[in-house]
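User: Predict Elongation factor Ts's structure from this.
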Amino acid sequence: MSISAKDVKKLRDVTGAGMMDCKKALSEADGDMDKAIEILRKKGQKVSEKRAERDANEGLILTRISDDHKKASAIEINCETDFVARNDDFQKQANTFLDAAFDNDIESAEDLMKVEVDGLSVEKHLEQMVGKIGEKIEIARVVLVKTEGTLVDYIHPGNQLGVLVDFDGDLSDDTVGKDVAMQIAAMNPLAATRDGVDASVVEKELEIAKEQLINEGKPEEIAEKAAKGKLRRFYEERVLHEQKFVKDNGITVKEYLEQNDAPLVKSFYRMQLGEA
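Assistant:
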């Protein structure tokens, strides 16, 4: 019988077993989920099954950038405890996965699972780590960025927050790049420019502002106009180029870049541990 990808994922989520093992087990069980779980347990998946019931809320954010700053990768790997995340072997293995993602131009965690490292797929390596360490371990996210401009990366101490910034041109001063990356880490903007903010978010902010003003007793027509003023403040807080520069609140990030003859930011990726 035909086994759907949805059922395979469901079994994987329940048991923590590899995707191919889940597919084989479901085929052997004629699609019966309970029987498939039993088959996996009989084949030595007991540890993974137990660990799948737990939350993997700790882990690492890792980045790698090419020497010419034209290509970068980032991954989020999760485990259950900070103790494991600080373990040298865990960190070494995580960096191996990052290298595999970078070297193979991988854009998703699902695709990374299939890549071979030292003769085994990343998926099999994760299963071995689960068995050895005794915690649920998974790769939650993979990001790949390529540019004609300049890429800068930043990892906040502790590896729970990472940033990749794509500048729209050549960046001659590394300090400027790091300053902007740290700004993104600290201030969590939604986008580099207003155009990058999702239209639904803008509509929602306008709606909230308008409702607040009406509740304060403002007529609807006046509230609608005043809401646009509140929206400007929203942009100043959540759009990178319009944010006050954290190292000098007298200027915006855009003004800081212009003062240093640096290109503007085209886009960025901010990865915080546990955030989808």
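Residues 17 and 59 are 20 Å apart (CA to CA).
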